[in-house]
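Batch manifest line 122
LIGAND: iron/sulfur cluster
JOB: complex structure
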Amino acid sequence: MDVKPQYDCSKCPAYCCSYDRIIVSKRDLSRLAKHFGITPEVAQRRFTKTVEGEQVLRHQKDKYYGSICMFLDQKSRRCTIYEARPGVCHEYPDRARCGYYDFLKWERRHQDNPDFVPLKKG
Ligand code: SF4
Ligand code: SF4
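JOB STATUS: finished
ARTIFACT:
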């Protein structure tokens, strides 16, 4: 990206990691397999599930968003496989602004609380 990012992931509880469909390509699977010292087949079974014909990362329960990628550390809100994360995670948000971060900044200003995180309802 040429333009300086207008968001700061270190101040966000990783909303983008709560997306249901974080696609895992064959290349991503090989990277994950290498990272964990297992075969791509085992990585596929252990870390992914099939949704509408696509391989996506499995989730775990999450206090903010209901569910979130299994690789997110719940305390630090950081990716535990940063170097081996899928290509889509690497690319996101693929532009200078992140819509969620803009929303978060607005809410935090509005609530006068720099740590405020809007919880997902229901
Ligand atoms: S939602 Fe935006 S600011 Fe938050 S971690 Fe993802 S890219 Fe970063
Ligand atoms: S692999 Fe890492 S960056 Fe990608 S969704 Fe999971 S926790 Fe987030």
